[in-house]
Amino acid sequence: MSPISVRHRGERRALPPDSCVRYVLTARYPLHLSGSMLSTAVASFALAPMRAPAPQMSAIQVGDVGTTRPLGVWDPLGLMTKMPEKYRRFQEMEIKHGRIAMLAVFHVLWTGSGHKWDGYCSYLSFPPLKFEDIPAGTWGSWAALPQAGWAQIVAVVAILDNSLFAQDPNREPGDVVGDRIPWVRYEDPEVKFFKLNAERNNGRAAMMGIIGMMTHESLTGNPIYPLPYEA
């Protein structure tokens, strides 16, 4: 403790540590404290250990897949500190949404460049709807597709998500094929770590990208504004 100096009869004098505490107590709390009370306060103040704040435990650790630079462990809302048991679920959902968003971005770029399937998309609509009649982009293709077609897409995706591509809790998040499908596997741990981080970051970029495309198309009619786009 740094010594405290007081002015007494025009002279400045330094106080010893115990007197410093007594001076602070009596100056801040102008009460008539007894000698035993002051001694107890001084002893408690002098012997109390300086405790550092308890660190907050988080489910995310530096080095996990997805904790890449420059953000690293980025959890501004503290969700993984408040709900660490949901970390696994959040990982699975982020990977799944990232993959869907990458496919959506690919759809916008591929159909916008003039690549569309031949044949009919729906025979039930009147007149029958061809694939080439469906506009490219996001909102345009959504509005042109019949509701029965969207119902079929949602049903097929839900069935695959809960059967063939169901997440095994004993496998890593995102490993939904297991040994049922001959998938690319990386034996080198560093290569595998790089590929998993690349997929996670590309999925994040695609989620932001498809939201931007939908916003641009709703405002300008062009999902990749200001670049030219053929619907």
Label this structure with key terms.
mainly alpha; single chain; 231 residues; 47% helix; 7 helices; 4 strands; two-stranded antiparallel ribbon
Structural class: mainly alpha
Rg computed from alpha carbons, rounded to a whole number of angstroms = 33 Å
- From N to C, what is the helix and strand string? EEHHHHEEHHH
**What's the story with the biggest beta sheet?**
2 strands, antiparallel
Record the SSE blueprint.
Elements: E1 4-8, E2 11-15, H1 17-28, H2 35-47, H3 79-82, H4 87-112, E3 120-122, E4 129-130, H5 139-144, H6 147-161, H7 189-220
Antiparallel strand pairs: 1-2, 3-4
Summarize this entry quickly:
The chain has 231 residues and is mainly alpha-helical. The chain is built from 7 helices and 4 strands; from the N terminus they run ββααααββααα. Strands 1-2 form a two-stranded antiparallel sheet. Strands 3-4 form a two-stranded antiparallel ribbon.
Description:
With 231 residues, this protein is mostly helical. Helix content is 47%, strand content 6%. The protein has seven helices and four strands, in the order E-E-H-H-H-H-E-E-H-H-H. The strands form two sheets. It has a two-stranded antiparallel ribbon. Strands 3-4 form a two-stranded antiparallel ribbon. A hairpin with a 6-residue loop joins strand 3 and strand 4. Helix 1 crosses helix 2 and helix 4 crosses helix 7. The protein starts with a strand and ends in an 11-residue tail after the last helix. About 11% of the residues have low confidence.
